[in-house]
Design brief:
With 362 residues, the chain is an alpha/beta fold. The protein has 16 helices and 10 strands. It has 2 domains: 199 residues, Periplasmic binding protein-like II (D-Maltodextrin-Binding Protein, domain 2, 3-Layer(aba) Sandwich); 93 residues, Periplasmic binding protein-like II (D-Maltodextrin-Binding Protein, domain 2).
Length: 362
């Protein structure tokens, strides 16, 4: 039988049947036996089992409020980057980023649970806990404090010992424990210097109203140098004073009752710090979306200081109990805290440690 006839017969069969028997029909239409045995009928392909997609985390709305105006403080930038690069979204977080208007607005709103996460210094966390308030530090960025002092390079003031007989400024009406610690370590007391209350405008120093001026290390030194004044920077940590810097703070109830939300927030922001460390200039560009009109070069200076102060071999955001306790003891010694306290009541870094230990921050 010819192949043409066989095909014509097969075409008269119902579609499904003809598809099944077409190979048999053709086999009887003059195909050599040897060829039939050498060409097995192909098996129908087996579909690969479907791979289940990971269940996305449930959507949660949270509010992060930075302690002051938008700028390149590392914990601020970590939130900006986590937002802009979709890291919060990957965690199922819808984050409203705000900034405090001053007067500790962020801490007040945290206590009333109107915001979920804020920034604050380690000293603030210790003080709030000493007052019995439910505030917990969940990550520590500043491995040293962000406050220091400057003197004119030609003043002869190089160390705290040189403060003797000089005018020394202090801000916000409070002589800080860091200054007290430096004086003590240099064998001096308050009576050996002339303490002067100053404002936050460095022109008071530029115009020589004080010999030693208190600064935020990531801010005013750059501003003063740009004004043409050569300075010596004096960091209390370099002179034996235990200091710590900015933290993320949460309400204690959040840490206890919603640890999954705290973990998702920290995983996103700590991943952001890894990216920031590798891409500082790009991080500045992101920050300028929030800090409208800010000077990019100044913001880069601030970020560089914060990155250097946050660096740890085992991961940014971590800390040792000894560092926390040393700061608490310093604050007690100069009556910033009313009595000795166990610093562990002010912080819980277990989530941060677990994220690094399980290699989730990369």
């Amino acid at each position: 039988m010819s192949l043409r006839v066989c095909l014509r017969r097969a075409s008269r069969l119902p579609l499904i049947v003809s598809a099944l028997v077409l190979g048999v029909t053709l086999a009887g239409c003059g195909t050599p036996a040897a060829s039939r045995e050498a060409t097995p009928v192909a098996s129908a392909p087996v579909a690969a089992p479907a791979t289940a997609s990971p269940t996305p985390p449930p959507k949660v709305r949270v509010t992060f409020m930075a302690g002051f105006a938008p700028q390149e403080n590392l914990p601020f930038v970590a939130a900006y980057v986590a937002q802009e690069r979709g890291l919060f979204a990957e965690e199922g977080l819808e984050v409203d980023i705000r900034h405090s208007s001053g007067q500790d607005e962020h801490l007040k709103l945290l206590l009333t649970k109107n915001v979920d996460f804020v920034t604050g210094t380690a000293a603030q966390a210790l003080r709030r806990n000493a007052d019995g308030l439910p505030v917990t530090a969940i990550a520590l960025f500043g491995q040293r404090g962000d406050q220091g002092y400057v003197a004119r390079a030609d003043s002869g003031i190089k160390t705290p010992a040189d403060f003797k007989g000089r005018t020394v400024g202090f801000k916000a009406g409070v002589v800080p424990a860091e200054l007290e610690g430096m004086l003590r370590n240099a064998g001096l007391t308050r009576d050996d210097v002339k303490l002067v209350s100053v404002g936050f405008d460095p022109r008071e120093f530029i115009e020589k109203k004080v010999d030693v001026y208190p600064v935020f290390l990531g801010n005013e030194p750059d501003t003063i140098r740009k004004a043409g004044v050569a300075i010596t920077v004096i960091d209390p940590t370099d002179f034996g004073v235990p200091t710590l810097g900015l933290t993320y703070l949460a309400h204690s109830d959040t840490v206890k009752q919603r640890p999954d939300v705290a973990e998702r927030f920290l995983r996103a922001t700590l991943r952001a710090t890894k990216w920031i460390e590798a891409n500082p200039d790009a991080a500045v560009e992101i920050t300028l979306k929030y800090a409208k009109g800010a000077d990019a070069a100044h913001q880069r200076f601030l970020l560089g200081v914060d990155l250097a102060n946050a660096k740890r071999a085992d991961g940014m955001g971590r800390a040792t109990p000894q560092a926390w306790q040393a700061l608490a003891d310093l604050l007690v010694g100069f009556k910033v805290l009313p009595k000795l306290m166990d610093a562990k009541q002010a912080y819980d870094l277990s989530i941060v440690d677990r994220l690094y230990d399980t290699q989730q921050i990369r």
